[in-house]
Design a protein that fits this description.
This protein has 9 helices and 13 strands. It is α+β, with helices and mostly antiparallel strands and 298 residues long.
Length: 298
Amino acid sequence: MDSTGMPVAVVASRVRREERLIFESFRRRGVPCEHVDPRHLTVLLANGRPPYRAALMREVSHSRAVSVATTLALLGVPTLNRPAVLEICGDKLRTALAFQTAGLPIPQAAVAWDVPAALDAMAKLDFPVVVKPVTGSWGHLTARVYNVEQGKAILEHRAALPSPQQHIYFLQEHIDKPGRDIKSYVAGDRVVCAIYKNAVGDWRTNTAIGGAATPCPITPELTKLAVAAARAVGGGFLGVDLLIDQQEILYANEVNHTPEFHGAIDATGVDVADCIVEWAVTEIETLEAATSQEAPGV
């Protein structure tokens, strides 16, 4: 099937400033695109490939994003990012394991599946310890624990929650940061821009809860670690979070497969949406060229 005349599906249940800028960039480039809200999408498996050239995944729900991307990919629609990348990046434990396997510098981490075991792991990591849910964004339900009593209270609260995901206790060494950390935006093997996320009235630096974005210089050290972290989870267009300690040593922390970037645009002036679209179009054309070469008689 020749898919080159089909639109690129931009899969998103919420159209934020980021998605509007992505639509505009596709249109400037003359590349047909279509907003696809997965809540309203029906796929009949017997009909074969859905009518999309490719799918750019911007869905904020991790479970829905993985399910939609897997369905589209197995029916022949290339997805950016790939389903396997979405799966890893949406799980902080799997991301840490990918970093550990790749030999990247990361905060010491532990995982446990029961409250007493998690308390034992806390003591081995030494206080303070950061307790994170394995899924979720924007720093929600992330806690800094200073002692056993506080840890026991937080873990027992998690144990009482109905979601099985909350009963996986992912713990990290607390990195003493200089009030900021870094989000870098990686397209393939290139860092297109980076920002400092500066804490404002909270130890967490997430911009979604009030952290302030300022420009961060793209150094060779930052590029090396950010690109290596992106490769470790499978590559794509990714927001790679790096931690900095008081000695300015960098650690790979997390990867966002659908990064928000309005703060990065405002802080750096870089057109991140256009960088995403440029990367996506190049990836799509490369995949189409490879498919054409593999076709019989070509």
